[in-house]
Specification:
Layout (H helix, E strand, L loop, with lengths): L1 H37 L1 H7 L4 H10 L17 H14 L1 H13 L8 H7 L8 E13 L2 E11 L7 E10 L6 E8 L4 E3 L13 E9 L5 E2 L17 H29 L12 H33 L6 H28 L10 H13 L9 H8 L12
Parallel strand pairs: 1-3
Antiparallel strand pairs: 1-2, 2-6, 3-4, 4-7, 5-6
Helix pairs in contact: 1-3, 1-4, 4-5, 4-7, 5-7, 7-8, 7-9, 7-10, 8-9, 9-10, 9-11
């Protein structure tokens, strides 16, 4: 009995310690947001985050949020990770996107075999990258296993040590193909400078290419693989982790745009159309936009929180709930685009100029919406699940 009591006490101490680590990370992020803000023009101009910003964000601990405690991570609840990514994205969309990809990719530390995780995620403060489309080919030629291929949209690759790339496995005897995520060092890849865009310019979402890069089995995983950690985070289907972490970015961008219009209403502005606070229709539009954004955010967090509660109890996460999280995430993204557009409209003529924070927010949030996760072509299958049909929709609903 004493042994059980000691184990329970140690478990509570570990949970309490990780919670305090998460709180310290949130406070640390708040402490470096001024650096992100000051670098916004440089990020836009150079199409990448400055090294000083990457280092400052790294030092806050954000890349540890979704890493197993056994590897030095925090195993933070998804809603806490969402909070952090929102705060960064509200200041700069590209910085928020890189943070979400860098920290979100690290959840795979619990899915690749533990031996491989100790290599790939040896530095828990290192952000990484993933690109899931199975555009690569892994060939096993009499024991020599290599990866070749080319992948677009590899966000955060400029600031990563490892990249998880989607690939089809082909054995020498012709068996397969089997899709997997293969983690390889960035140093073994060619980064092609292809990300020259209007929105999310600083995310470095370039193409990467591999030419017969060595592959190790313990650095590979499938979405259906059973994670090795026992914590709450790895009792959740993986897309109930990945999607909310990413959709926090458009939510944050929209919040930053609304906050900017609110500032203009409070402080006044020079404009031919007069003061924003004196325009009742404009104030009504601001009120509706702010309320819609809060409602969409709350709906997503409620669904994610429900899944976390079930996982904490060791209960399965129903396919219907998984679908609701996907749908809430898509709705939150769509709402973020609409709200940011309203904020840009309320910004008047000044929001048309290059360098306008509102114009940048609008470009960034529209670029974020183009991600496959937020595509409306998922709606039909997800609708079947909400209606109560018990169907898989891999890899989003398992």
């Amino acid at each position: 009995m004493k042994s059980v009591d000691r184990m329970q006490k140690n478990g509570r101490l570990m949970v309490g310690s990780m919670a305090s680590d998460t709180l310290r990370t949130k406070r640390a992020v708040d402490g470096v947001l001024h650096l992100v803000h000051a670098a916004a023009d440089e990020i836009e101009r150079n199409r990448r985050l400055p090294d000083a910003v990457v280092a400052a964000l790294r030092d806050t601990g954000i890349n540890r949020l979704l890493i197993p405690a056994a590897l030095g991570g925090m195993e933070a609840p998804i809603t806490d990770a969402m909070d952090v990514m929102e705060r960064i994205a509200a200041v700069d969309g590209s910085a928020g996107w890189c943070a979400a990809i860098g920290g979100g990719s690290n959840v795979f530390a619990g899915y690749v075999p533990a031996t491989g995780a100790r290599t790939v995620f040896a530095d828990p403060d290192q952000g990484n990258a993933t690109m899931f489309a199975p555009l690569g080919r892994v060939v096993n030629d009499h024991g020599r296993v290599t990866l070749s291929g080319r992948w677009p949209f590899t966000s955060n690759c400029l600031h990563s040590a490892w990249v998880g790339l989607g690939a089809l496995f082909h054995d020498a005897d012709g068996a397969g193909p089997v899709p997997r995520i293969v983690f390889v060092p960035v140093a073994d890849l060619t980064i092609e400078d292809t990300w020259d865009v209007v929105g999310l310019r600083g995310t470095g979402s370039h193409h990467v290419a591999a030419a017969e890069v060595p592959v190790y089995p313990d650095r590979c995983t499938r979405f259906a693989d059973r994670p090795w950690p026992g914590g709450t985070l790895w009792r959740l289907p993986i897309y109930t982790t990945l999607l909310p972490t990413l959709v926090a970015v458009p939510l944050g961008i929209a919040r930053g745009a609304i906050d900017e219009i609110s500032r203009q209403a409070r402080e006044g502005r020079t404009a031919r159309r007069g003061q924003l606070a004196d325009a009742p229709i404009s104030m009504a539009e601001l009120a509706v936009a702010d309320t819609r954004l809060r409602a969409a955010r709350a709906g997503l967090r409620a669904a994610v929180g429900e899944a976390h509660m079930h996982a904490e109890r060791g209960e399965p996460i129903s396919r219907q709930l998984q679908a609701r999280i996907c749908l809430a995430g898509m709705h939150a993204c769509d709402t973020s685009v609409e709200v940011t557009s309203t904020a840009h409209h309320l910004g008047g003529g000044a929001a048309a100029y290059r360098g306008s924070r509102l114009l940048r927010a609008l470009s960034d949030v529209q670029a974020a919406r183009q991600h496959l996760l937020f595509s409306h072509h998922h709606l039909g299958e997800l609708g079947k699940l909400v209606a109560g049909l018990d169907l898989a929709y891999p890899p989003y609903v398992m």
